[in-house]
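Lay summary. Proteins are chains of building blocks that fold into shapes, and those shapes determine what they do. In this project we predict the shape from the chain. Here is one chain we studied, written as its sequence of building blocks.
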Amino acid sequence: MNCLKLLCSLSLIFISLNLQAEGFKVKVPKSLCSDLDIRDKMKSEDLKEHFTRPRSQDSVGWCYAFVTADLLSVETGVPLSSTHVSSISNASIYKEALKNEEDRFYIYKVFDRTMDKASNPKFKSIVEGGSIYWGVKDSVTKGSLCSEKELPFDENGPESTKADLITNIENIKRLQMLNTPTLACQRAKSLIDVLDLNASADEIYKLVLVNNVNIAFEQLASMSCVDPIKLNKSIKVTYEEIPKPNLEKRSRSRLGQKSLKRDKKKIVKAFEKIESLLSIGRPVGISYNVSHITAFEGWHGSSITGRRWNSGRCEYKVRNSWGKDCSSYNYLSIIECNREEGSFWVTDQKLYEMVEGITYIDS
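And here is the predicted shape, written in a compact code that computers can read:
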């Protein structure tokens, strides 16, 4: 580590974190908060446009897949499909559930992502919700992803992915059980049109019938890729938890005080990692409860894509997946909502308070 880097690290440790009665107070120094936007590092105009355009998950719970696609898009230089990410993760979750079904000692094992068995009724529908970390891991294991251009989310308007893709796959199963194969075949024809598949309605119909919907979803999504984008197998993804210690309890004992010191180091390390990644043009995935920025509850994922020094504080730009909507935010919690880019800004202190963990690629 050179002297300048060491000085910056010590500066962050000394200045940014202070213990007070109500909790950690985070203040990133100006020396580590130069104004930047990761788009300035991008050579591809398509990629710059991708990171500028608002995206909306609507009622589909795939926020993690949008963030995963962001992380991997920067690695490949091509905007990648969040829909394909979701399909791959869904298939992986179901395959693990199949293993749980087969393993009579499954309750004693260490689970990667699900404790459910494949017979769980939830798997009769396409899974929504997931992990940014596993989204990256599963995609890299798969080896390639569709581009966003080939398999876009909601290309035909709000909720089209839900209505035209998810509902059609699920309804083929339901209609077959109701002994209405003609209607099911019509759904299969719709999938061919939506995904631009080179297959017959009968082939698609049978593919969905003989597979769980989550496996069928992944197979159909992959079939839609005429020119898949290869992923480097050496891509490594990391998740780091950001501690939220109970100061009152921890400070009562020497053991607790040592634990606080470790937590403080972890928080410093996380902010230093965010700083270093943004500086080289890489986004950082964050996991948090939306109750910190809205009047609602629920776990969510977004990407940090920029920072700025404003009014004596470091502020971070968070790329969200709620379209151009700014009405959902609590303006006492955020600094600003950028409707045209689908993003919002928060202070360093708010970022610490809201974020449970960061996920990033640092190959």
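What the prediction tells us: The chain has twelve helices and twelve strands.
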